[in-house]
Input
Amino acid sequence: MAFPPKLVVEQFTMMDAELFQKVVSSPCLGSTWGKRNKPGNEHQTPNFQATVDHVRRVASFVIIPCLGDPSKTAQDRVRVVERWIQVAQVCCGRPSGAPL
Output
């Protein structure tokens, strides 16, 4: 929460770009992704799986500070949500604090 929203967005963008560059379309288009849970297919889509795992980690960055600590007050949670809204605004190309 100490980092400026623009810096958070830049770091997420760099991580996303690195992962997205490794994803190839054939596993997605060839239905390989849907067969990944069958025995022997676990490693057929490693780059796509890494991207999905990254998205889940990013989601946990938002969820855990809001809900993971039962000692947080409602006001603490509000501040965390407000900060993630600022990050989302920068992601959308709006200055932090601009109305959605």
